[in-house]
TrEMBL record:
Major localization class: membrane
GO MF annotation: an example: lipid-linked peptidoglycan transporter activity
UniProt cross-references to InterPro entries, sorted A to Z: FtsW/RodA
GO CC, alphabetical: cell division site; plasma membrane
Residue runs in coiled coils: none
The name this protein goes by in its record: Cell division protein FtsW
Topology relative to the membrane: Multi-pass membrane protein
Segments of this protein annotated with the region Disordered: 449-469
Amino acid sequence: MSVVTNTTTIGAIEAPSRRNTELAMLGFAVAIPLFAYLNVGLALDGKVPGGMIGYGLGIGLLAGVGHLVVRKFAPYADPLLLPLATLLNGLGLVLIWRLDQSPRLIARATNLYGGFSPDAPKQLMYSAIGIALFVAVLLLLKDHRILQRYTYISMAVALVLLILPMFFPARNGAKIWISLGPINVQPGEFAKIIIAIFFSGYLMVKRDALALASRRVMGIYLPRGRDLGPILMVWAMSILILVFETDLGTSLLFFGLFVIMLYVATERTSWIIFGLVMSAGGAVGVATFEPHVQQRVEFWLNPFAQATWDQSEQVGQALMSFGAGGTLGTGLGQGNSDLIGFAANSDFILSTVGEEFGLAGTMAFLLIYGLIVERGVRTALAARDPFGKLLAIGLSGAFAIQVFVVAGGVMGLIPLTGMTMPFVAAGGSSVIANWALIGILIRISDTARRPAPAPAPSPDAEMTQVVRP
């Protein structure tokens, strides 16, 4: 007896989308800030704060909109990126609201500006705009590889964004803002994303040339002269930013991002060594003649010097806040980080975390940031295309460098840079740009984790003859 059968291709097994996991994590990401909000109200006034319901509905609505859009338009995306960003954003709103209640800050603002305007409502509005941009990224960016078409256009846009602040007045010694009436924008926050797009497209094309064997000196492969053009251009741009805008943070972020992506693209350690030497040499050179950079270094080395206490008081107060927090902290609403002054809820907001959450809470915050970076690196490893790999690692690297630069400056590990802690510090540009960054990472992770479609069965499938006795 013989049976004639045709062979067909077995379809791919459907991969889990993990959207329910994301929804459960979002529940915790909303509940934890809501509990922190309750704690602040009880500590300050001994009663439940009146705006608790409104705050809970606001942050819950933003999280819910983000989740529904991801579930619909990026169903296979990483399930932790959105909850982690929501948790940081929610806790940042609580810390800003806590500082808004400080009598010292209210009195200081009234004396200097004739009135006090709370920052928490504005930060909630900026968070809503950030979520709107997050949604727009997922709706409009169907495939992250489309960004590769705009490699050189993105570089031109990034240069314009970095140069524009030079033509506006300095604020607190640095030219990092564009002021248009009541609207203040920090273009460097958006430039880091656009620069990562340029580097990804450029290095994807040039990585073979940059990875060629170079001259070996003392056991280290140094780049060839013809390959030094890109890194010298980026190094010169970072130095120009440091000279004309006196913005140490953006300069470090810009150059550090390129070195990280260059190392990932070429797998040559010599690029890291060469980049660090150039970065350190440029910073030391600028510090010898730029007074603002010299002042930042002096405050870092001697934050408690009596002669400069009027200018370095914020740095000294921040360090004392960490010391006062101890291991477990003083408790939400029971610290004195408001003594730092006008930048307590922006540049120095990590000091409030260190004092009121303690060492344990500070490590928890840094761990959340570390998890976002880890999920970004994991997305880069899973990406199927080289452009997606480089873009994911570039965005994750930029995020990590910014966290290190801000945390290191506030804790006294490096000179203060004036950048803001992503999602936590007060500031519209920062929270909006970082929500866009998370949106791009989610789009890349959705493409990377999406199961490949099963090939359609061919009508001319091979017929096989199976003979059974």
